Amino acid sequence: MVWPACATGTRVKTGCVGGQWREYMDGLKGWVEAFSSAGIRLVFFFDGVVEEQKRREWVKRRRRVNGEISKLFRHIKAQGEQPGRELFCLPSGLATFTRFALRSLGQEVFCSVREADYEIASYARQHGSMGILGQDSDFIIYDSAPCFSVAKLRIHSLTTVMYDRQRLCQTIGLTVAQLPLLACLLGNDVVSEDKMMHIRNNAMATYRIDNPTAHSGAPQGQMVMAVSHLVSSVWGREEQETGLIPQTLNLSAPHRELLKRGVHSYLLPGEEAIQLGDISAPSSAFEKHVSSEILKACREKHVAAEGFMVYSVLCEGVIECSNTLEDEEDTELLPQALVYKPCRQRIYGLLLFNGHEGSRVDLPAIREWFVYAGNALKEPDMVHPVPISLQYNQPVLDLLWFGNGPEVSSLRLKSFLSMFDCQELSELYGAVEDSLLAALCLVTYIALQIQTLSQEDCDAYLSQAVCLRLKSQKELQHIKLPFLCSRAVQLGSLYVRGLAHLLGANCASGGPLPGATLMPWSSFDGRLFHSKYLLAHSGSDNTVLLDRDPFCLSQFLCLREKLTETCRKRGRVLQSRPKAPQQAPGPPNRDRHTGGGENWSERGETTGGGWRERGEARGDPNTCENRERLWERGGGGTRGEHFHPHPRGRSHRSRGRGRYQLAPRWSQPPAPGT
Asked: In which residue ranges is the amino acid composition biased (Basic and acidic residues) (predicted)?
């Protein structure tokens, strides 16, 4: 059974707080075991690329999801609680990490090098699969294996609905070979609905004249029947033999060519193909900058779903990132696309400079399609590679990927850490667990990029990473939150997107860290982080923050000391800026508890002076190029800043002060350079 990964039927609970990833893993395991016990082998496919002919539809969907995310944050800020199913949003990074989750469960996983639906249908046809379990109507159009509904699937009984391709053809009076033309005239990802509207309108007018009594059905059904009659009437022997678009269709030359491409997208290997010139796979975007061995390994790892980010850079020259749970009204926190941009530039540099100094290599920019507030997605961001900073020359990619020996291992680690400007952390390698080293690297990078990140935010990140390893899944499931904080939601999503960048950097540098340590089910739980965030900002003592565990407390203090030291070397001093969380107006919910005390403080609200107000949105190239200087000026105004410290105030923060103090006021909030 072939399963499009986008149709995976397991939900991540509490997605809006970053996801309970261990529970998600158990859910996936249950689904896999249900099929395995019935003797059904699953094969998963993931979208590896977004073809440019479908970019318009991709952008349209991203904009729609942006609206849904805005509603989600408005609900959280108004009610302080998880919204219902009508506002359910998948956690950031789900598609990225699910492929690795399934591989860890022993499943066969592929990542496409062209349109995933095409590769799925082609695989199912060539291997005689029992079916495709999905929810895309295109699988009915392909002349491939039967299509089963994942939405109607009942996992306990393994029953669902099968969409019968032959029965459909009998009902609408067409052959299977005519379905691609029908799909394109009705509108799909290649041929948008508006392009063929005049064809459909004419077909509907003719259908109503010829069938005056057949107007009682749903409008969509009538349209399908009308266009089906049109296809049947214009389809002759020539079209059947050659697959050409009927000449009798009233189409301009560009629309006819577009329709040809749309129909061709449904023709699988072995079927008659419309002649469209050279349709062979394009060569690598940067093949002259890397060896053939690197390109071969890159493609193999991509197809086997073992790599991340590298194939998109070397072979496509384009990278995209879907929606992230970010509050577009929060002008204090930068979008993750901008936070991690310097890291991506260094990843691009490591891959493309390939041992050469940056000044001696002229590289084209990488096209980035990243969704964030202020980006209209009318065109990609053009992002230039930046060489990584090492004491010696730029590392050669072939050595990093294929070399052996302790010196190569050390070079891999230093290259990896340099992409996050954390080279000093290499001394902790082997002294702390790899997952904690990765967490410290990520938190340090975020702190260096976001000047408004407070000591409390960093404490929440680090305490979550330390405590997670000792938590059972049952304990994680039973974490109760008194309310949700929109800022904590965004910080959780920011962290998970950071894990993806850790993964990309790890793949680019030859894998100095085990990939499993970078997975969210090994290093992050959304509810646990949210609880730590509320505790940290309410003034809980470190012993409470670390679950009163001496070993966890010792590790936490060690990591925090290294974080503080690394930041200080770069002129970044972390400050205590408690946000004093407060439950939003709404019905009381007294039965929820975090285990961190009862006196939650009043929350201040940040207003004005944000990153967009300073012209840092994508639309202003002049200010984008000088973002680093702009952010170093500092600033940000606050109002309503009242904070009542927790009775057990943190001794490490109050030493020498006797009480908590508010952070200073700024005219503009500081923010990172990019």
From this structure: 589-632
